[in-house]
Amino acid sequence: MLLDAPERELVQPVDRELIQACQRGDHDAFALLFEAYRDRVYSIALRFSGDASVALDIAQDTFLKLLSKIGEFRGEASFESWLYRLVVNSCLDHRRVGRRWSPLLDVWLTALRASGESVLQRLLRTEVAESVQQVVRKLPPELRMVVILRYTEELSYDHIAEILGCPSGTVASRLNRAHKLLERRLSGFRNHGGGNRA
Amino acid sequence: MPKPTGIWLESMLTRELCRVPAPAQLWDRVQLPGDPRPNSQRGKAPRGAISICLAWASTAALLVVSAVGLHAYLKNEVALAAVRSAGVVHLQAACHLCHSGDELQAVGQRGVY
């Protein structure tokens, strides 16, 4: 289920030369690196914070850290793991500034902007999406981060453990706890599972 | 027919927490050569910096107050010690005087008898 996502493979892991060019201060190399990782960084930030403007702040913070610290990258771990660690730390450092003033209005506006589907279908779909994201946002940070790395980035337990600096067993138990909480809170949407998001 | 527990949740999470494209403005914000702080922090000092400043100011104030207090205490203590030692000297002198008077009297009495 987590493996059938061919778009994940479109971004190839960056090669050593690109990183070395970045370490020398090559602006174009940094642009390439940014291009390769911007969606990942932003998605983790967005799923963690649940707020687009906070996610932009976190992503900006992460890339500025990347720019200033890339000289310290020695290649002992993979570059991806190193970057994920930067994002995770930026997310955990960032406190949520506040809730969105009107999530309901957001849902309605998204539904009305939709084309093709009926407004009702779209409303239902956005309601499910909003509810899932809201429930995930309410998880404790350590559980939330494991869930995001697992379902947004589709990483293995071992990779998540490497990023978070904890044993794989801890990742498994956190994910298990998160599943139980999510299952309880999302049981109302159990039969709304079908279909892919646009 | 409902999906078995776990599978429906995993498919829902995979679908709803999927990766999203980053907005184009992110590059502009990373590129900005000026203030590198995020938008939400611009125009105001970061909370961390304020806390650190407050902590340093409190520590400095505490140190100054402690130094002044200690100085006053030591000064007072020296003065008290001086007073005490002067008092002791006076007392000792008085005692000596008294005792020497007694001794003289005793010697005189012994001499008489």
Highest-level CATH class of the largest domain in chain A: Mainly Alpha
Low-confidence runs of at least 5 consecutive residues of chain B: none
Number of strands of chain B: 0
Helix content of chain A: 55-70%
Query: Which structural class matches the secondary elements of chain B?
Result: mainly alpha
Principal-axis shape of chain A: globular
Write down the Rg of chain A.
Answer: 18 Å
Measured by DSSP, the beta-strand proportion of chain B falls in under 5%
How would you describe what is shown here?
The complex is a heterodimer of chains A (198) and B (113). With 198 residues, chain A is an all-alpha fold. Chain A has 9 helices and no strands. Chain A folds into 2 domains: 80 residues, RNA polymerase sigma factor, region 2, helix turn helix motif (Rna Polymerase Sigma Factor, Chain: A, Orthogonal Bundle), CATH 1.10.1740; 90 residues, Orthogonal Bundle (Arc Repressor Mutant, subunit A), CATH 1.10.10.10. The two termini of chain A are 18 Å apart. Chain B is an all-alpha fold. Chain B is 73% helix and 0% strand. Chains A and B meet through helix 2, helix 3, helix 6, helix 7 and helix 9 of A and helix 1 and helix 2 of B.
Q: What key phrases describe this protein's structure?
A:
heterodimer; A: about 200 residues; mainly alpha; Rna Polymerase Sigma Factor, Chain: A; Arc Repressor Mutant, subunit A; 9 helices; about 65% helix; globular; B: about 110 residues; rod-shaped
